[in-house]
């Protein structure tokens, strides 16, 4: 697969998917609260308050939530991703095209490769394990070569299992896995989550660092993508 370039948008602000709006837990709550929706006079409504970020959560309130699937299960609404509205955009182009369009200074990084893997439909959350293993093997990389991981969190149990199977506990402890929060804190906007993860990753990587995005996919699939910052 030919590497492609990811370009940042023009204009001010934190850019698409990165910067000021990202944060998990308390950080996300502080960053996501502003005003409500506001019409800017053009007929467009700008949402300045993220009502999906949970600001009043405590360990006690989480412990009191009922299991979501089975009577004695551990998955609750508090440790599962939220269904959220959201949007993200990425522009992929050859470097020569970016140069012709005068966009070379906006290049965020390179999309190097992606892998998909299958698993049992009722175990769809573990799909990223095989996808990441195949991705690293393809490029002869070790997990330690990856500076940052953006892993979609369908459920906390699923994310923790993937971390352990991939040997990423130390990376997580060092703040290299979802350091600004994942889907449990920020929400899971179906159809936009992959682009959101890639945007967050590319805005956060230092020059020449490698990063990986992973997603579990319904009906029993997993996907992993490898990116390099400019």
TrEMBL record:
Annotated ranges, domain Thiolase N-terminal: 42-95
Molecular function via GO: acetyl-CoA C-acyltransferase activity
Protein origin, superkingdom: Eukaryota
Pathways involved: Lipid metabolism; fatty acid metabolism
EC numbers on record: 2.3.1.16
Keyword match Acyltransferase: yes
Domain Thiolase C-terminal: 106-227
Reaction equations catalysed: an acyl-CoA + acetyl-CoA = a 3-oxoacyl-CoA + CoA
Cofactor: K(+)
Pfam families, sorted: Thiolase_C, Thiolase_N
A GO biological process held by the record: fatty acid beta-oxidation
GO-annotated cellular components: peroxisome
Biased composition (Gly residues): 9-40
UniProt-annotated stretches for the region Disordered: 1-48
Keywords: Acyltransferase, Transferase
Similarity comment text for this entry: Belongs to the thiolase-like superfamily. Thiolase family.
Protein's name according to its UniProt entry: acetyl-CoA C-acyltransferase
Species for this entry: Ophiocordyceps australis
